[in-house]
Amino acid sequence: MAWYEEAVFYHIYPLGLLGAPEENNYGEPVHRLPELKEWVSHMKTIGADALYLGPCFSSGSHGYDTTDYRRLDERLGTNEDLADLVGFCHENGVRVILDGVFNHTGRDFFAFRDLKAYRENSRYREWYCDVNFMGNNEYGDGFSYQNWGGYNLLPKLNLYNPEVREYLYDTIRFWVREFDIDGLRLDAADVLEHNFMRGLRGLANDLANGSKKDFWLMGEVIHGDYSRWVNENTLHSVTNYALHKALYSAHNDHNYFEIAHTIRRQEQMGLGGNVHLYNFTDNHDVERIMTKLNNKRHFLPVHVLLYTLPGIPSVYYGSEFGIEGKKMRGSDASLRPYLSLSELTAERKAPLEIMQALGHIHREESALWYGDYRELELTTTKYAYARGDLLVTVTNSDAEEHFDLPASGTYKGALTGREIKEDQGRLRFSLEGNSGEIWIPAGEKKQYEPVRTVIEVRDTSHDETSTADFAPERAKGKSYEEMSIEELQAEILAKLAANGPVTDRMKQDVRENVYRDSLLNWVKSFR
User: Fold this and answer.
1) Cα-Cα-Cα-Cα dihedral sign, residues 38, 41, 46, 47
2) Which tens digits make up the pLDDT trace of 394-417?
3) Does the domain formed by 371-457 have CATH 2.60.40.1180?
4) What phi and psi, each to the nearest 5 degrees, are found at residue 369?
């Protein structure tokens, strides 16, 4: 049993979280990285025991335009800072994986600088793909080359070149030796050369037989048959973008068949059983789950699914607080913000406590690591399945849903403490709308204290003076134009409450309005 099969990951984009400048001037190191220790302590409170940290190494801007693979980005600190942080993680039972950005480099990388300086005579001209000295580009280099994603900022490495491959393999050995990392997330794995990845797997196997047992390789793959990358010859896991999409759209469209079909399809690919894909609701490249959900009350069932479906759950920093993040004018900056942990913890306790409860359950229940998945009941608005001897039920409907499941014995809800008993080999019970529960066989497993915050959050629609679910406190000192969607919704509800009783229908109208211009007009209409 490998450590990563039982892990809950916490994903940090350090340049954003630590408020580093967008551009690197390659000056004296600024020791920001040690500030992550408080986030490591925090992630443990939500049951996360593995940190995906990246990108970390010297780059010109966003971290994926690498300048030096063997030096921590100057905006974050020094190599000693990274070694110290990984050591702190290990002392606290947290594994660490780093971003391996091996498909391309930045234009400041030593090999590309040499190519610009010496052109046809550069000893590194074969380090890059399709270098053409009859071409040109927007930088006026006097030559063209293959890049990643159409961006000449990211010249593509020639991974067919043995010298390039060996340089990168040596870099990984350096990271293990100097920083004691536990694995890699491979950027743009869906376009990496397969022989290069086979060599990576051989290196991982060598490390596993030596100093780094269960060295893990996980790749960023968007589309396609994941078994092409996940097998005994290449990677251990990939990013499960198929499930990522299904998790939010199945709630927005009220169609749980999409999630069930995704799981079935992956089983058909041979990705069931002991294959553990990397599951997530959001990350540094996609909008936050709270932004994607039309109904914010779906935060709970979405995360019950994240923590209980087959795979390895991952939480992107800040999303455990229910923050929003939307791409603006094609920029990812709003998805990678600076955050204050103390402010978030004080203001957004409800979603945090939900995540803490789910993380605790995942840590205690081995059926969520290795238990067989069995679909039990499925409609567009309700979904039930077993993981080993556990039962999971979720709803995406505003109305109460009734379940009738084949099971024997007595079960207790890990989130609510509610107890249900079989009747002639069936469990018949109702679940309130937009909710979820993990049912544990009573008396056989560790029993959990009811999570009061979960119940309170799910029931806020019955409180005539409450504000929107998961909404932060009113944004004091901000103009309406500066407020987030959530803050505008909270402000509108506060104004409505000041004018009289706020009905369930009124609150629903506010929650379902996620359009900034409409909310601005609405909040300004009050006298």
Assistant:
1) positive
2) 999 999 999 999 999 999 999 999
3) yes
4) -95, -45
